[in-house]
């Protein structure tokens, strides 16, 4: 029977959805600098009428909004982001837009490089000019001799510092104004406040030294502090941008797989015909112009341009770039072909079935982009913290400065100003904003490289907690293409030599109306023998038991012991012995009753995949309990389980009871993954904490499963779980470092160590520590690029 289709899991961070069809808008957002920016944009978008969910990702600089088009449109949503001071444009995948986006990213990078170069050059001069005031007293005379007098002059230092502050550092003022104008704050506010305080005090002291000292303000210049902080933060952003570019390497590899042209036959172009191929001469056209149904020639060494079906010729195809499988796959007539895979040997003709955004590669890219833009549950906590973090830091900096100004050592104002600047700079929440999204981005990208599509960050984080993996037998542990192995007829019914064929013909006629894979094996065997199948009437499929039908005037029952028992048909001991023997051999016995009496038994077997025992062992080595779930009888199930090393078997489970079996495992306190084909095991996949679709990445599987294994290889399951554990481990390390950095160093910057050790943090060191924190988080994330699949 056709099983119910698995429905997509709802997003946990969405508002309750109405019955109207929602639209999705993906935006490319420029100008974000920290987690506070993310929180501001999401808050503004969520306030728009009709917005059901808004997700913004700092690492990929994108936002995704689910909205009701009857209440709000893309223009209003884009304007809402732009009103916050960020540049937002719809994210497009068309080549022209993609090229334009690359140009804009390159232009922004060059501007950042120029700003840093300007700041670094002038800061070097300022530091050299400030040398006499920075070195210990015993080196002061030496410094005065080495540094030219004109460079030590405060007016020279002011002229050198001002371009750093207001040209190279203008981006911080622009971001701070955008934040403050909307009654919020972010990293730019902290940097602008800190550097402006240092520059303003120094400039005022340079222009009005006598007046200010008369009022009691101590003479002190902070030009070196202002320039060094600005330069170090620009350096941090430059290194961050380069490192974050490396996190998207997997996505660039996927996008680079696409063929550029296709060799097609177009009507109206005369040419010869051969092998059933229509008349015409092959011509090369851009891949974007290929249409569904067109005939394409693919030669050895060329990429298959689009998804399609092989119609003439044969070859072997390297699908490793999408599936992770290293061995080429043989392709014959009628076999499916995946666009962007590599033709290794023979030439062949194919018919295009999916083009453009409908190809598997395009869908994979779309799924990976959505996964990289999704939020892990822990990230939502980080966003909540970031929303109040900056105001809290400003408050701590202000209170600390007032405290030291009142009770601090002389000159107390200088001491207070140093503390104020250090707290503001050291607490910039850059690392917090990058800790989770960069890890999710690299983790999902690495999964895609190995043929593992993770639907979202939540699935990646949940996979980390798994304790048990339930494997469906057919098509998961086994090849999924069973074949007929035995036909045992009733010896008490003497007949002709074709009695076996006659029995097979009757059973195949009934199974022809079924969709069960075991029935397909029987029909295939009858077809191979050239048997004629009679017409079937009154066909009934009984879930988990078998079939009932009328064929050529005979009443047939085809199924298991439960079916015959329900129909009150006696099963002799010899038949029990036969079915027991077949089941012990790992075969599935199928009892056949004709006109109320046992007529024989057929046996069907499905071979175990060569990779299944190794994959099961790999899962067990990860500490997972592996369980086989099947509708087969206990003996058959145990025979298959023994071959792959599984000790716990749940057999004779009806389709509607598979979800209950998973639920029972969850009641044992386990986080459970269900591995199936994404359609037949729909209820169990929906019930499991993580649903893993194994197969060829069909539309249903890719749209509904939490994780899809494109290759159909069971090795993808331990690899996906190991990748999840590695990713979550990196996220935890990043968050620990980010939180520990702020928790430990904000008190230090506020002067907590001064009463005990006489230590006060120099604002320049605070800036260096803040930059180091962000770079450490990104570089730690990049360690995921070295992840190797489990074999």
Give a description of the structure.
With 791 residues, the protein is of the alpha+beta class. Helix content is 50%, strand content 17%. It contains 31 helices and 26 strands. A seven-stranded mixed beta sheet has the order 14-26-25-24-15-22-23, sandwiched between helices. Strands 6-5-7-13-8-11 form a six-stranded antiparallel beta sheet, with no helix packed on it. A six-stranded antiparallel beta sheet has the order 16-21-20-19-18-17. Mean pLDDT is 81; it is low at 1-18, 93-97 and 268-275.
Query: Strands across the major sheet, in which order?
Result: 14-26-25-24-15-22-23
Rg to the nearest angstrom? 35 Å
Low-confidence stretches: 1-18, 93-97, 268-275
If helices are DSSP runs of H or I spanning 4 or more residues, what is the number of helices? 31
What's this model, at a glance?
The protein is of the alpha+beta class. It has 31 helices and 26 strands. Helix 7 (154-168) runs antiparallel to helix 9.
Key traits:
791 residues, 31 helices, 7-stranded mixed beta sheet, elongated, disordered N terminus, alpha+beta, 50% helix
């Amino acid at each position: 029977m056709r099983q119910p289709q698995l429905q997509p899991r709802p997003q946990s961070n969405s508002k309750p959805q109405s019955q109207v069809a929602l639209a999705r808008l993906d935006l490319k957002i420029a100008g974000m600098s920290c987690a506070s920016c993310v929180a501001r944009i999401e808050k503004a978008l969520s306030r728009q009428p009709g917005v059901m969910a808004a997700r913004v990702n700092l690492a990929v600089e994108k936002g995704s909004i689910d909205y009701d088009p009857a209440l709000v449109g893309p223009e209003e949503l884009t304007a809402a982001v732009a009103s916050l001071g960020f540049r937002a444009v719809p994210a497009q995948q068309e080549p022209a837009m993609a090229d334009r986006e690359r140009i804009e990213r390159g232009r922004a990078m060059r501007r950042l490089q120029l700003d840093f170069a300007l700041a670094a050059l002038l800061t070097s001069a300022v530091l050299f000019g400030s040398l006499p005031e920075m070195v210990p007293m015993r080196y002061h005379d030496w410094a005065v001799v080495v540094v030219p007098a004109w460079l030590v002059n405060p007016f020279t230092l002011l002229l050198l510092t001002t371009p750093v502050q207001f040209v190279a550092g203008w981006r911080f003022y622009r971001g701070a104004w955008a934040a403050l104008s909307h009654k919020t704050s972010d990293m730019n506010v902290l940097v602008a406040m800190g550097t402006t305080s240092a520059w303003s005090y120094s400039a005022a002291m340079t222009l009005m030294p006598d007046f200010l000292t008369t009022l009691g303000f101590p003479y002190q210049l902070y030009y070196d502090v202002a320039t060094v902080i600005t330069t170090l933060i620009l350096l941090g952003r430059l290194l961050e941008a380069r490192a974050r570019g490396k996190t998207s390497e997997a996505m660039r590899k996927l996008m680079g797989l696409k063929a550029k042209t296709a060799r097609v036959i177009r009507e109206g172009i005369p040419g010869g015909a051969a092998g059933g191929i229509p008349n015409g001469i092959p011509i090369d056209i851009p891949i974007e112009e290929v249409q569904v149904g067109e005939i394409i020639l693919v030669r050895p060494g060329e990429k298959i341009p689009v998804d399609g079906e092989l119609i003439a010729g044969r070859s072997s195809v390297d699908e490793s770039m999408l599936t992770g499988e290293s061995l080429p796959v043989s392709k014959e007539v009628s076999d499916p072909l995946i666009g962007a895979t590599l033709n290794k040997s023979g030439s062949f003709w194919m018919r295009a079935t999916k083009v453009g955004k409908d190809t598997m590669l395009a869908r994979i890219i779309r799924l990976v982009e959505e996964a990289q833009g999704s939020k892990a549950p822990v990230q939502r906590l980080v966003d909540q913290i970031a929303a109040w973090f900056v105001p809290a830091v400003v408050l701590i900096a202000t209170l600390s400065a007032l405290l030291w100004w009142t009770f601090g050592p002389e000159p107390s104002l200088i001491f207070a100003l140093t503390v104020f600047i250090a707290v503001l700079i050291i607490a910039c929440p850059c690392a917090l904003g990058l800790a989770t999204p960069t890890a999710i981005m690299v983790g999902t990208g690495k999964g895609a490289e190995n043929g593992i599509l993770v639907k979202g960050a939540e699935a990646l984080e949940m996979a980390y907690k798994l304790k048990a993996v339930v494997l469906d037998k057919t098509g998961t542990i086994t090849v999924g293409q069973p074949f007929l192995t035995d036909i045992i007829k009733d010896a008490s019914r003497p007949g002709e030599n074709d009695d076996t064929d006659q029995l097979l013909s009757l059973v195949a006629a009934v199974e022809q109306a079924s969709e069960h894979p075991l029935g397909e094996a029987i029909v295939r065997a009858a077809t191979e023998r050239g048997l004629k199948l009679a017409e079937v009437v009154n066909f009934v499929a009984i879930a988990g038991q078998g079939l009932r039908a009328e064929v050529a005037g005979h009443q047939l029952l085809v199924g298991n012991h439960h079916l015959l028992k329900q129909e009150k048909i006696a099963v002799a001991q010899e038949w029990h012995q036969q079915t027991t023997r077949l089941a012990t051999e790992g075969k599935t016995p199928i009892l056949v009753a004709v006109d109320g009496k046992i007529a024989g038994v057929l046996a069907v077997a499905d071979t175990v995949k060569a990779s299944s025992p190794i994959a099961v062992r790999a899962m067990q080595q990860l500490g997972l309990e592996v369980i086989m779930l099947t509708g087969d009888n206990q003996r058959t199930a145990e025979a298959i389980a023994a071959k792959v090393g599984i000790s716990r078997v749940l057999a004779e489970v009806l389709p509607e009871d598979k979800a209950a079996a998973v639920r029972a495992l969850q009641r044992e306190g386990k986080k459970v993954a269900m591995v199936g084909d994404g359609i037949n095991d729909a209820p169990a996949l929906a019930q499991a904490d993580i649903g893993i679709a194994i197969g060829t990445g069909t539309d249903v599987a890719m749209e509904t499963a939490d994780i899809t294994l494109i290759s159909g290889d069971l090795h993808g399951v331990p690899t996906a779980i190991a990748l999840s554990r590695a990713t979550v481990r990196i996220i935890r390390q990043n968050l620990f470092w980010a939180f520990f950095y702020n928790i430990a160093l904000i008190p230090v910057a506020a002067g907590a160590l001064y009463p005990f050790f006489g230590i006060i943090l120099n604002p320049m060191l605070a800036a260096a520590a803040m930059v180091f924190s962000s770079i450490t988080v990104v570089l730690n994330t990049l360690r995921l690029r070295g992840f190797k699949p489990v074999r």
